[in-house]
Specification:
Length: 270
Amino acid sequence: MVKIKTPEEIEIMRESALIVSKTLGLIAKEIKPGVTTLQLDKIAEEFIRDNGGIPGFLGLYDFPNTLCMSPNQQVVHGIPNNKPLKNGEIISVDCGVLKNGYYGDHAYTFEVGEVEPETKKLLDITKQSLYVGIREFKAGNRVGDVGFAIQQFCEAEGYGVVRELVGHGLGEKMHEGPEMPNYGKRGRGKKFVEGMVVAIEPMINLGTRKIVQHSDGWTITTLDNKPSAHFEHDIAIVNGKPQLLSTFDYIYDALGIKSTEEDEFRAASN
Ligand code: MG
Ligand code: MG
């Protein structure tokens, strides 16, 4: 079901989203060869609780941890473990927070040390595709407009757009309507209106779009074992236009990256 949010609810959700953003910024500083994903998970859980939040994924559908940590060919939903990260790997980190009854949920794929150029490009294009999609999330447009834009952008590079996993509405539940696929047809699906809040999250594969679900019930990998990237933001429609509730700025501060890609989606009052 789609639940439209009041301006007050959107402000509460902004706080939840920002705790996720800060958590990802903290994790960004710690990601290096030798660190385990379980160590990073503990850091995230402590930070979220210190900020008055509850880890949004812990226990959700029985997920065992705070962060979904999906290295290399893992698409999403990876479970943190004791294996040290290695130079040249990538790691998708997805984080959820529940605070004041509302969820934040966003994700970033990090490089560990020095990464192959073709993998770097996959990350760059996937992140760009997120903003290409967000630009279509405005009053009067439809679900298919976002999916179409992301799909066109990524397939133009020869990448595989995952079909089985999609973005979603966000609010008092982690997963509300509408579903937000990263593929689709222009003008199709639910119409966007003022006060909608969604998580847009392209999951893009270097090779085939086909995926494999593993027997642990969580881990999902690409069929050809080539890398997969995942970037996610929380966005509200305010004054008819997409407004970011989450931000990668804390990550960029940690990594020393300069970026203007979020500027057009910031609150006018910021
Ligand atoms: Mg997520
Ligand atoms: Mg999500």
